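Lecture 7 notes: from sequence to structure.
We start with the chain below.
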Amino acid sequence: MAHVPSLDAAGEVETRRPYILCRDLFKIYKRAELEVVALRGVDLTVRTGEVAAIVGASGSGKSTLLNVLSGLDRPSAGQVMVGERDLLNMPDSELVRYRRLEVGFVWQATSRNLVPYLTAQDNIEMPLALSGTDIASRHRRSQELLAALDMTEKADRYPQQLSGGEQQRVAIGVALANSPPLLLADEPTGELDTENANRIFDLMRRVNQLFGTTVVVVTHYPGVAEHVDRVIHIRDGRISSESFLEPTFQKDGENVLREYIVVDGAGRLQLPQDYIAQMQLQGLAQADIEERIVTLEPPPKAPGSSSPQGAAEDK
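Predicted structure tokens for the same chain:
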């Protein structure tokens, strides 16, 4: 469902700072003598309590963005705020505390999420033990999470005794053990069939509603829009568009998925590739605005050319 901004008592649109705020975010990896720019000026906001999905082709920067938000990677430049934390300028000691207590992470490969010689309950209690939580409180929290994840009856089973979907449910419990306000997941359903994938997304929505956890998930799952508030599309290291399920107001009550191009704080936008092909845009374009409608078209005469280009427009 699309988000409708809430109104305060005076009827004004509420303008609280989002829980995640990225402005002109860059991440550059240096490999030998080469530099790879994985993120190229990302602007992103995620509200407190929102469930958002990030989608994009391989190499588009989505996993890099998730790693930056989790504190696993340091941003190269720009602004990255998660809650009150400035991830760009945070000392290493604070970054360790942030990763331990303020963000939970679920990997695609279940082997990275669970300790094979611990039961489901023990896996969930391990982060609590590492943070110094007493035994009684650890038991209460693990039982609460196992119940929320429909895993109470399998609390004493080891990972190899669980199905792939059950292992990912326990992995969500491990990620939420210390009650972090943010849950991040990188392709959590990549190794699951459709039925189990739907169940994992439903459980993420459930923990979001039960605990108020903000959830951001990177995924290729085609049906993800049915399970999240917003789908964020990333291309070539920038946020290109966002999609929302919006009501059609028809009798059948079905929703339609609408995609909107993102214009960032610097006025940059990414046109879909099929638009560029249809408009025959190559390097230069003319832009005009009239009554809030922006018209783009190729210049009538390309610089250095004696023949005009064919005109096309997008409204």
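Points to note: The chain has a mean pLDDT of 85. Helices lie at 62-70, 92-101, 120-130, 135-148, 164-175, 194-211, 273-279.
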